[in-house]
Amino acid sequence: MSSTGKATLNDKTGMLSHSNQKIPTTHAYEFGGPFGTLLTTLALPVLVLVLAHWAKKGYLDLSFFSDEDSRTIFCPSCDNLPLLLKCAAGLCAWFLALVILWALLPGLWVEGAPVHGNPNHRLPYKLNGHLTFWVVIGSVVLFRLPLNEYLYRYYENLAFTDISLCFLLAGYLYISSFAKDQHGKPKVLSIMGNSGNAAYDFFMGRELNPRIGRFDWKQFCELRPGLILWVLLNYACAQEQYKVYGKVSGSMVLLNVFHAFYVWDSLHMERAILTTMDITTDGFGFMLVFGDLAWVPFTYNHPAKYLVHHDPNLSAPVLAAIFGLYVLGFYIFRAANSQKDMFRSNPNDPRVAHLTYMPTKRGTRLLTSGWWGMARKINYTGDYLMGLTYSLLCGFDSIVPYYYAVYFCILLVHRSIRDDVLCQDKYGKDWDEYKRQVPYRFIPGIV
Asked: What are 187-230's pLDDT values in tens digits?
C-alpha cells in the first residue's frame, strides 16, 4: 500500500490494495461477457413464465398471442394491480418470517472459509436452516394449510412478482456494493463481478458477502426462501390434484418425497455450502438472487405442476425402479460430498485416513482415491441421477417435464467447466498432474 493511501495494482494477483483491503478485479468474462449476461438477465425471467405455462398446458404451446390465456404469460393479471401487490406482500412476508426464524431459533455459529484466501479473515455464519425447515413443514401440517388455494391458484402471478422482487433486491445489492462498510472501509468484492461494466457486474454480483450486521444475504438465500418454497409449491400441487381428481398419484407422492428429502438433506448439511463456489467465490448479484429465489422454486417445481393434470399413472414396478435410481443417485451424491468434507476437516479421521492424495504447492491435498479417485465431479453424477428421476416420474407422453433433465445436465456440465478453470488458476501445474491421475470428470472409464 502506498503511503498516500492511493490504490495500487498488484500485477501478480490482479488485486487492488486500498488500506488493508484487497479489491479484486475481474480479469476474464464469463457467460458471454456483458452482452451475454444482459441477454441472460432478460431471457431467464421470460423462460420461467413460459415453463409455467407449458407445465399447465402439458405441451409446448408456441402460440403465445393466439388466445387470452397465452397473452397473459409475460404479465399475469397486469390489469389487476391489487392482486400483484398482494402477491408481493405475501412473498415479502414469507421472506421476513424466515429472517425472524433465523434470528430467534437456536443455531450453531461457525466460521466460513478464508475470504480471498486470507486465513485471518473468516466470516461467522449461523446454522439453523434444518430447524427452520421443520418449523415451517410442521406448521403447514399442524394447521392443515390449504396451500393450493394460494400457491397453486396464483402460481403465475407469484412467479411474476417474485421475479420483479429479484430485480429490486439485485439492484439494491449492486448499488450498496459501492458504499463503505460499517468500519468506513470499501466492501469486500468478488473477483467475478468487479469488471467495471454495470450490466455484467449487476448479473455476477460485485460484493462477495453482503451483510446487515451478522445477517449474510447470500448464505441465507442460498438454502432457505427458495428451497423451502419449492417444497411448499409441490405440496400445493398435490393438494390441487387431490381436489380435482380425489386422489394423489404415485408419481406425485414420490416427487414430493424426493424433493422434500433433497431440501431436507441440503439444510441438514447446511455447513457444507460454506466451502462451495457460490459462497467463497461468486458475488451476490442477479445470477444468484434470481437463481435462489425465483428459478429454483418456480422451475424445479415444474414436474409437479405438470403432474396435476397430466399424470401418466405409472405402474408400481416402474415407480419402484425410479425410486431405486433415486436412491443410487443420492448415495453417490451424499457419500462423495461427505467424504470430501470429512477429509477437508480432519484428514486423520479413520474413515478417510486410508485415502491417497496428491500434495500441492499451495499446501493443500487433492484426493486421488475413494470417490474422488473415480472422477473429479462424481458428486455431480449422483446429483444428476436424482434430477433425472423427477422427469421420469412424469412418463413419456410429453417432452415438457424433461426440461429439468436437459437443463440440469447443461447446468452441471457448465459448472464443472467453471470449477476446472478456477482450479487451474488456483493450482497451476499441480492441477494438470491431478487431471492426469484422475482423468474422468463424471463417470469412471467413460466421461
From this structure: 999 999 999 999 999 999 999 999 999 999 999 999 999 999 99
What would the grid cell of residue 330 be?
443420492
Residue type, 395: G
Q: How would residue 285 be classed by pLDDT, with cut points 50, 70 and 90?
A: very high
pLDDT in tens, 337-386: 999 888 887 888 899 999 999 999 888 899 999 999 999 999 999 999 99
Tell me the β-bridge partners of 9: 16
* Dihedral of alpha carbons 309, 313, 316, 320, sign: negative
Which residue, among 386, 371, 350, has the nearest Cα to 444 in the 3D structure? 371
Continuous H helices in 105-177: 129-142, 155-176
- Distance (Å, rounded) from C-alpha 306 to C-alpha 315? 18
CA 331/CA 156 separation, integer angstroms: 35
Q: What are the distances in angstroms from CA 81 to CA 24, 85, 87, 298, 380?
A: 43, 6, 10, 21, 42
Under 8 Å between Cβ of 402 and 389: no
CA–CA dist 244, 307 (Å, integer): 12
- Tell me how far apart the alpha carbons of residues 261 and 267 are, in angstroms, rounded to a whole number: 10
Write out the DSSP string of 396-421.
SS-SGGGHHHHHHHHHHHHHHHHHHH
Q: Contact at 8 Å (CB) between 374 and 340?
A: no
Alpha-carbon distances, residue 419 vs 328, 354, 416 (angstroms):
24, 26, 5
Q: Would you state the cell numbers that stand for residue 98, as one nine-digit string?
A: 424466515
Q: Say if CB 334 and CB 264 are below 8 A apart.
A: no
- Whether residue 344 contacts residue 394, with contact meaning beta carbons closer than 8 Å, is answered with no
CB 205 within 8 A of CB 190: yes
Q: Quick one: cell of 303?
A: 414436474
Residue 368 in grid coordinates? 486421488
| Under 8 Å between Cβ of 365 and 383 | no
Residues in Cβ contact with 331 at an 8 Å cutoff, skipping those fewer than 6 apart? 382
Question: Using alpha carbons only, what angle is made at residue 15 by residues 12 and 17, rounded to the nearest 5 degrees?
Answer: 120
